[in-house]
């Protein structure tokens, strides 16, 4: 087994975060599993790994809770070998129908929250001569889809911030790596999935299209594997000591295939494919439903 690491993970109440915390603990690493409601979710995640898993509160939109989580880490272990920025949620709705508050809320968690966490982790890692930061992005960072535009923007922004920070922190021996999951059967399609106020109130211009696409996305997600594939991949990356981490690691055959297909097509070819394909799921449901309306203007 690799030398025991001290790893702090955000968003561990369910899904990929919980699976990653348990996978690392099972391998003998010291895990600080953070979540917004540890009293409710902590015992379930920690069960069987009480000896090497600490559960504590951390809301990535609340600086005081971030400071407390890192203070606990320093007090107990005196170092931090890896940070996994997993906390996040999906927002669903037409870009121009979402309020400024709705847009800010998802950016505050998915992008600003990661910056806050990296800012807090870097000094601790510098003191011990290095470390690893794994930022969980998404297939949606490169596969941009209508009705997920704001969410995609947070993940595209996260990719830019992560790549820049990777170069900036190299002088301190700190590696930043993007982990890009595909569609996974997690709470990200249900509990951690915000729909726009316009859709919730039944007044969206895209009401029928949104409902149809939402049903398709959830149907596809329900047939996908859970988060353990991503958990194993992240644990492996944390344990690698012999070579530098890559910038980006796509996880899941859907992400690998989608990234390759997008890179192989021009913008015109990509749009033509989207408007003419009858495939189910993200993001094709929108294009099937909107095809007739578009044809009135563009033939």
> How many strands, what sense, and barrel or not for the largest sheet?
7 strands, parallel
Q: What is the second-level CATH architecture?
A: 3-Layer(aba) Sandwich
Task: Count the domains.
Answer: 1
Sketch the topology as an H/E string, one letter per element: EHEHEHEEHEHEEHHHEHHH
CATH class: Alpha Beta
Within the largest sheet, what's the order of strands? 3-2-1-4-6-7-9
pLDDT below 50 for ≥5 consecutive residues: which ranges?
Answer: none
Strand content: 5-15%
Question: Span between N and C termini?
Answer: 61 Å
Class per helix and strand makeup: alpha/beta
Shape: globular
Number of helices: 11
Radius of gyration, taken over Cα atoms and rounded to an integer in Å: 20 Å
For the record, what is the CATH homologous superfamily label? NAD(P)-binding Rossmann-like Domain
Helix content: 40-55%
CATH fold assignment: Rossmann fold
Mean pLDDT: 92
Name the features.
299 residues; alpha/beta; Rossmann fold; 7-stranded parallel beta sheet; two-stranded parallel sheet
